[in-house]
Specification:
It is built from 16 helices and 18 strands. The protein is α/β, with parallel strands linked by helices and about 425 residues long. A six-stranded mixed sheet has the order 2-1-3-8-7-6, sandwiched between helices. A six-stranded mixed sheet has the order 14-13-15-16-17-18, sandwiched between helices. A hairpin with a 2-residue loop joins strand 10 and strand 11.
Amino acid sequence: MIGALIFIGDELICGAIENTNSVFAGRILTSYGFEIGEIVTLPDKIEFISKYLKDLIKKYKFLIICGGLGPTDDDLTNLAVAKAFNLELKENKDFLSAIYLAKEYRKSQEIAKKMALLPEGALPLSKNFSSAGYFLKIKNKPLFFLPGVPHQFENLLQTEVIPKLLELFPDRTKRIIKTLRFFDLNETDLNQVINSLPEDLLSPLKIGYYPVFPELKLILQGKKEKDLEVFINRLKETFLLHLISERDESLPQVVGKLLKKREEKLATAESCTGGMLASIITSVSGSSLYFDRGFVTYSPESKTELLGIKKETIEKFDIVSYEVAMEMAEGVRKKTKVDYALSITGFAGPTGGTPENPVGTVYIGFSYKNKIKAFRFSLSGDRNQIQLLASYTSLDILRRYLLYGESFFSYRFATGIKERTF
């Protein structure tokens, strides 16, 4: 059963706001067996909205329209609906009553009254009229108009729109969707291996590649759980080390779960990443259970004062080196008494660098048990990309160790490794 999604708002056109509603709607609709033929983003212009409504209702079995239902002057969806289908706007008394009772509109009731003017035949979706949104049938086809506020959109889509679509279109094939996440893997390499697999493994599935730097997502759709399971197991034969999650969990989430399960703690010391690694770790709710603290030691003096790096180490080997990365990791672990410590030092660019260590050179230290390892990487990209890639690579070193031990530290951009036992 094929439908179309329409998202309305100048803020979406100019990129001021990310359209997370599109991602959510596509995922949940597809999982219930509904296909999306088109996703259209329109400006706040009555002529545009009206034209697309008339055109798309002819092509698809259902439409879901998001945005433009609020009280401000740029909320024009209802006017566009009235123009497109020659409908009158009529005041919905229940909706109007809810507006008068809402604290949110206590000082702006006259302006907010606009939201109660709905196209004739419209049935409000919210049972308590707490949010805009309505159902309308045009030419015997269902149209669902939802607010653009993400939590309101998601709630109405799940509680009202999906049940109604299931009732209207019972003859559909439900699809199972799995999202795999990989790290340190090029999508072309993944694609090449997948294309070499037998046709009987590929034919039952729909496969999509979505790089979300620095991770790579592989989205699989199929009708049978077994088909997905067999395919994923074949991928693991080649890419197990690179597979972060089979549940669409990010690298920071996965590492957090591993540490929490083991009841172990982590601390960090950063230079060229400026605290990005600690920020990524603590972006996960509950990270206080396994993340002790992070040091941003940007200058040579701070490395000496806070982490105990020897001045002679910096003078002899330079601040960007295996030896400094190892002493940073060792210093953090000694100071905090944690189970694991990660350190990063390098040149993120665009300035800096030396002939021996050009821009993009990053050393990552890892202290654990009675060992310290330091890895040298040659990374490319702009400053933010190098910082992000260095931060994620640090976490992935820890992930691989927790899952597979220390024999699997092999990375595309690694150019060397040193270790010290104590």
